[in-house]
Design brief:
Radius of gyration: 23 Å
Structural class: mainly alpha
Distance between the termini: 81 Å
Largest sheet: none
CATH class of one domain: Mainly Alpha
Order of helices and strands: HHHHHH
CATH architecture of one domain: Orthogonal Bundle
Length: 153
């Protein structure tokens, strides 16, 4: 049985794989690849921002674990501009590098608009979508909403 020692090489990634069947099929409509997350296809426009306000909601639970992780990430990525309390008085503002960083208390924001800004940026703030995973973005959003609620008290 020489075939057991010298197998016939098949290129399964070729146009025709094993048994002459096509192998490069498009993904099934409406599915997400394993380990993947839904694509964010809301455009970076004022209309897109308002659409995010209505359509986008936080899919993860506001647990202590998620809030704590959100606080850690907020400290890394956000406090330099937005400040520890979300009052827009971070170190870069105090040192005169930026002006007009918004106070969360003064903004009409929700989870959808915050996510939209993290994904696309707004005004001087650039996009942070490449620095944060899908879950990390939502953890920060939980923490920002908590900061805003504290400011509104």
């Amino acid at each position: 049985m020489p075939d057991m020692y010298e197998s016939i090489p098949y290129d399964t990634d070729a146009e025709k794989g094993l048994n002459n069947k096509p192998v490069n099929r498009p993904p099934v409509a409406g599915t997400i690849p394993r380990g993947g997350f839904p694509a964010y296809d809301i455009p970076d426009t004022p209309e897109g921002y308002e659409r995010a306000r209505v359509e986008v909601t936080n899919p993860i639970e506001a647990s202590e674990k998620n809030l704590e992780k959100g606080k850690q990430l907020y400290t890394i990525y956000c406090t330099s501009c937005h400040g520890e309390k979300g009052d827009g008085n971070g170190a870069l503002v105090q040192n005169g590098k930026f002006e007009g960083i918004p106070n969360y208390k003064d903004r009409d924001i929700n989870a959808g608009t915050i996510y939209h800004v993290i994904m696309h940026g707004k005004n001087l703030m650039g996009s942070h979508s490449s620095q944060l995973t899908y879950t990390e973005r939502w953890q920060i959003i939980h923490y920002v909403e908590q900061l805003r609620a504290d400011l509104l008290k």
